[in-house]
Write a structure and sequence with these properties.
The complex is a heterodimer of chains A (67) and B (172). Chain A has 67 residues and is an all-alpha fold. Chain A contains two helices and no strands. In chain B, strands 1-10-9-4-3-2 form a six-stranded antiparallel β-sheet, with no helix packed on it. The chains are: A mainly alpha (67), B alpha+beta (172). The complex binds FE2/S2 (inorganic) cluster.
Chain lengths: 67, 172
């Protein structure tokens, strides 16, 4: 059960990826808010699509983190 | 010996020294918990993005029902009239250009949604937020950051002496 230094490093890397994905999601919500303000439905939908893909990536990373 | 150690307040129990695997596992659980919160956060933001997109889409299709806006006699030439169309949440403005010419636009700037107003001396609609300018008659962009003309309200002067709004036109 002891975690090897290599395992610890990879789980740190996963955490960093997740933090980056979270930052991207925060950026995307500002893009969606701007699209809402300017009534740009096409931009809003493409932002939502990218956001869902990022969520999928984050969920996949979480699975990878499981022992 | 072990009993003596555990008797000391706050000291690490003897079993933990003998079987130290628990400490590493505990740290890993904490990491996983943190990662799970992050994933939940990105999921919530993704749902928020979808909600905003649906809201934006639904607002665009609201074209409006025909409605009397203002009596001809109440709007002199060169004057503007503020009203709300198609819903109470949509500010709009009408300008009487000449005896029989009227134009009306959504007051929402197409850049970031500030309210535009008429500048008679420059004959244009002006947005004070980032100095966007739109043509007074067509609503086309003259200068500034907006890339799309103002949304136009289609008008009709009816025999009842009122100017009617017939619908909102979103220009590309
Ligand atoms: S909001 Fe009108 S120019 Fe930026």
């Amino acid at each position: 059960m002891r975690v090897s230094p290599r395992g610890r490093q990879s789980s740190s890397a996963v955490l960093i990826y997740l933090i980056v994905l979270m930052s991207l999601q925060l950026f995307l919500i500002t893009v969606a808010a701007e699209a809402w303000l300017t009534d740009e439905a096409a931009l809003a939908w493409s932002t939502a699509a990218v956001s869902v893909v990022l969520f999928g990536c984050a969920a996949a990373f979480l699975r990878y983190l499981r022992p | 010996m072990a009993d003596d150690d555990s008797a000391v307040e706050g000291a690490e129990p003897a079993w933990k020294r003998d079987f130290p695997y628990e400490a590493a596992a505990e740290e890993e659980v904490t990491r996983r918990e943190f990662a799970r919160y992050l994933v939940l956060g990105t999921g919530a933001l993704a749902i928020g993005n979808i909600g905003l997109a649906a809201w934006t889409q639904l607002r665009r299709v609201a074209g409006g029902e025909p409605r009397a806006i203002v009596a001809l006699a109440d709007l002199p030439i060169g004057a503007t009239h503020l009203f709300r169309y198609p819903t109470e949440a949509d500010p709009a403005v009408m300008l009487r250009v000449s005896e029989d010419q009227f134009v009306a636009f959504s007051q929402k700037c197409t850049h970031l949604g500030c309210v535009v107003y008429h500048q008679p001396e420059r004959d244009r609609w002006h947005c004070p937020c980032h100095k966007g300018d739109f043509d007074a008659i067509s609503g086309a962009v003259l200068s500034g950051p907006p890339t799309r003309p103002l949304d136009q309200i289609v008008l009709e002067v009816r025999p009842d002496g009122f100017v009617w709004a017939l619908g909102r036109e979103v220009k590309a």
